[in-house]
Amino acid sequence: MALAFAARSTALRRVCALALVLSGSHVQGQSLNAPSPTAQASASGHKYPPVDERHPLAPALKLARASRKSLDSVRDYQCVFIKRELLNGAVVTQTMEMKFREEPFSVYLKNQEPNPGREILFVYGQNDNKLLAHEGSGLKSLVGTVPLAIDAPQVRAENRHPITEIGMRKLIDKVIAQWEYEGQFGETNVQYYPDAKIGGMSCPAIECTHPQPRRQFPFHVTRLYIDAQANLPVRIENYGYPAASGQEPPLVEEFTYVKVRTNVGLANEDFSAKNPAYKF
Q1: Which of 15, 36, 119, 188 is least crowded, fewest Cβ atoms below 10 Å from its Cβ?
Q2: CA-based angle 129:133:137, to the nearest 5?
Q3: 114 CB contacts (<8 Å, ≥6 apart)?
Q4: What are phi and psi of 119, to 5 degrees?
C-alpha cells in the first residue's frame, strides 16, 4: 500500500512539474470552441466539447479527473471537515467531525466549533429526505431533535450549499464541470504549485484565474488541492473578483477535508439517530 501511494505521489509531482511549463499561460479571446447543445456529454455528464489540448485548463483537467478516478474505490470515509463561506457579508468558519458513505448517500456531522456538540444527520431516502439536527448545549438543546428540509431558511442561513452537495466526490465533480465549461473560453491563467501543503501534508495545488469578470466565469480564482499520497481532492478555494485594482480577491468559499480515513466500514448504525453514541 505504501509503495502504491508513493507511486501515485511521484506521478502527480511529475505531471505537476511538466505542467509548470504552462504556468501563467493563457488564451486570449472570448472563445476557442463555444458550447454546443448537440455536443457529446463530457465525463462529468455535461454537454461541452472536449477542451482543446492547447488550452491551459487541459492539463489541469487531467489531474482533476485522475483524482476523481481515485475516488472510485472509496465507499466511505471519516475526516475533519472545515468550511469557510461568505455568508451575509462575513466569512464564517465551521469545523466538524464527519462520517460519509456513498451508498446510500449518508452524512453525519458533529460540530467542533462553533456550536460544539451540534449533530447533523442526513440519509438520502430516509426521514422524508430531511436532515435531523440538534444543538449540543444551551436552551436550543432542550428542544431535542428537529427535522429540517435541506433548503429550510435556518439551514440556508449557515450554508451556501445543501447537504446533498457535501463530500469529496461532489467537490471534484463541480470543479471538473466548471473547468470543462470554462475551457471553452479564453482569458484563463493556470498556475501549478507542486510543493503546496495543508497542515504539513503535501497537497499539490492547481490555480485557475480569470483576469476579467465575465458571465461564464463564476469565480476570479479557483484552487484545487490534491493529496499527493492518496491522490484525493482535499480542498477547493473559490475567490470573487476584487472590488478595485490592487485589492485582494475576497474569499467566497473554501472546503477542506483533513485527517481522512477511507473505507473504514461505516455501517447503518453510524447514520442512525438511534446510535447510543449520538444525542438525537
Answers
A1: 36
A2: 180
A3: 94
A4: -120, 140
Q: CB neighbours (10 Å) of residue 275? A: 16
| Local structure of residue 25 (DSSP, 8 states) | B
Confidence class for position 39, pLDDT limits 50, 70, 90: very low
Nearest C-alpha neighbor of 195 from the set 1, 29, 6, 20 = 20
Are 188 and 208 in contact by the 8 Å Cβ rule? The answer is: yes
- The 8-class DSSP code of residue 101 comes to E
Do residues 146 and 133 make contact, with C-beta atoms less than 8 angstroms apart? yes
Distances (CA, A) of 107 to 86, 116, 153, 201, 227: 23, 18, 20, 25, 22
Cα–Cα distance list, 212 to 46, 58, 203, 239 (Å): 25, 20, 28, 13
Distance CA 106, CA 99 (A): 8
Give the number of other Cβ atoms within 10 Å of residue 87's Cβ: 14
Q: How many helices (H) and strands (E) does the chain have?
A: 4, 13
Residue position matching grid coordinates 479557483: 222
pLDDT digits (tens, 9 = 90+) for 198-210: 999 999 999 999 9
Q: From 102, 51, 98, select the one nearest 76 (Cα to Cα).
A: 102
Other beta carbons within 10 angstroms of residue 103's beta carbon come to 8
- 67-103 confidence digits (pLDDT tens): 999 999 999 999 999 999 999 999 999 999 999 999 9
Cβ pair 159, 85 in contact under 8 A: yes
